[in-house]
């Protein structure tokens, strides 16, 4: 602290000339005008920066950006003009931002388009698998987000309409209904090891219909929560008897492994699953039922039903599809690399779990 001639204590620094420095803010037109005036008064970049609350390097760069050479009295002198600085700033900004690697990654793009249309794999599955298996040099490929940007910009042969999930819009309003029948043990009683997918052997079940007519075949779909293994069975109709017959056949195929591989099954409250609780008495498999009209509680199975719909659209009769056709769809689901499985396929993840039994 110092004392002036009146005896009043003052600080060494003038706080009006040392405001907090602005960060991550570009100079504006007004500040450039101030720089011109202060520079004409002979202030150094450091002093100008103090008055404007800017770093001295910011002022030096601006003076360099906006200065032009002029001849005065037969001498070359450098003069700063704010409009020149603004013009050069705007020109430089146009060149900012990431550059397209589209041409440099042409081989990877061609591979991605081929896998997308021929194998019907998702964009992320293709990118993730190529990275995990080092199919391309890292500088010769782009990430999933960049691929979607290229699709939005129309740079690829893939269009947004070709992406099944991206164009899907749910317009249904949520409804809450009361007095729904209770078929068995509620999903709220399901233990943590099932909910957090830490334990293998817990499944979700549903049915997929073609045409909504009597005597129309139905697909029984059952999905393992941890490995995403998918089992699809074509059954004669949507009756509970047909579902139980298919499950009994599945139990026979699995033999002694059935209680270890099928520890629990979670279903919705559809009438086709009204006899599902009987499975507990014969096999020991625990049966849980989701809350009414809450398909999100069986999200894994619902997601796989959406994959099946890529091959079997709604409203198309299942009479048109043979058992071999259904097995091909099942094989496609189980050989699709998944990001959530570190780009293993459900078949690979399922086999790894079986070795531990």
Strand count, sense and closure of the main sheet? 5 strands, mixed
Strand ordering within the main sheet: 7-6-5-8-9
Per CATH, the superfamily of the largest domain is Ribonuclease H-like superfamily/Ribonuclease H
Share in β-strands: 5-15%
* Residue share in helix: 25-40%
CATH fold label of the largest domain: Nucleotidyltransferase, domain 5
Number of alpha- plus pi-helical segments: 14
CATH uppermost class of the largest domain? Alpha Beta
Compute the separation of the termini in Å. 79 Å
Shape: elongated
The total tally of domains equals: 3
What Rg is obtained from the alpha carbons, in whole angstroms?
34 Å
Number of strands: 9
Mean pLDDT: 85
Look at the helices and sheets and give the structural class. Answer: alpha/beta
Low-confidence blocks of residues: 1-18
CATH architecture of the largest domain: 2-Layer Sandwich
What is the H/E order? EEHHHEEHHHHHEEEHHEHEHHH
């Amino acid at each position: 602290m110092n004392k002036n001639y009146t005896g009043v204590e003052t600080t060494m620094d003038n706080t009006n000339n040392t405001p907090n420095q602005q960060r991550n803010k570009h100079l504006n037109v007004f500040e450039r005008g101030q720089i011109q005036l202060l520079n004409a008064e002979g202030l150094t970049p450091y002093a100008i920066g103090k008055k404007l609350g800017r770093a001295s390097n910011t002022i030096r760069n601006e003076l360099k950006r906006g200065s032009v050479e002029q001849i005065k009295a037969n001498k070359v002198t450098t003069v700063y003009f704010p409009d020149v600085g603004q013009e050069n700033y705007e020109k430089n900004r146009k060149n900012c931002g990431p550059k397209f690697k589209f041409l440099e990654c042409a081989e990877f793009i061609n591979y991605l388009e081929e896998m997308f249309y021929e194998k019907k794999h998702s964009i992320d599955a293709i990118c993730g698998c190529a990275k995990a298996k080092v199919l391309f040099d890292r500088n010769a490929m782009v990430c999933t987000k960049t691929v979607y940007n290229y699709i939005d910009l129309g740079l690829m042969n893939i269009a947004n309409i070709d992406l099944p999930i991206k164009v899907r819009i749910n317009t249904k309003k949520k409804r809450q209904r009361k007095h729904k029948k209770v078929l068995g043990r509620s999903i709220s009683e399901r233990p943590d090891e099932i909910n957090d997918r830490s334990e293998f052997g817990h499944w979700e079940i549903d049915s997929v219909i073609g045409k909504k007519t009597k005597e129309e075949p139905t697909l029984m779909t059952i999905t393992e929560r941890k490995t995403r293994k998918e089992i699809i069975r074509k059954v004669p109709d949507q009756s509970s008897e047909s579902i139980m017959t298919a499950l009994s056949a599945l139990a026979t195929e699995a033999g002694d492994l059935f209680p270890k591989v099928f520890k629990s099954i979670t279903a919705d409250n559809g009438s086709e699953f009204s006899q599902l609780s009987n499975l507990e008495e014969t096999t020991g498999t625990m049966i849980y039922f989701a809350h009414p009209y809450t398909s999100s509680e069986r999200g894994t199975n619902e997601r796989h039903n959406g994959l099946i719909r890529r091959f079997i659209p709604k409203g198309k009769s299942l009479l048109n599809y043979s058992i071999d056709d259904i097995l091909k769809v099942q094989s496609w689901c189980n050989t699709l690399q998944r990001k959530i499985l570190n780009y293993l396929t459900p078949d690979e993840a399922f086999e790894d779990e079986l070795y531990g039994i």
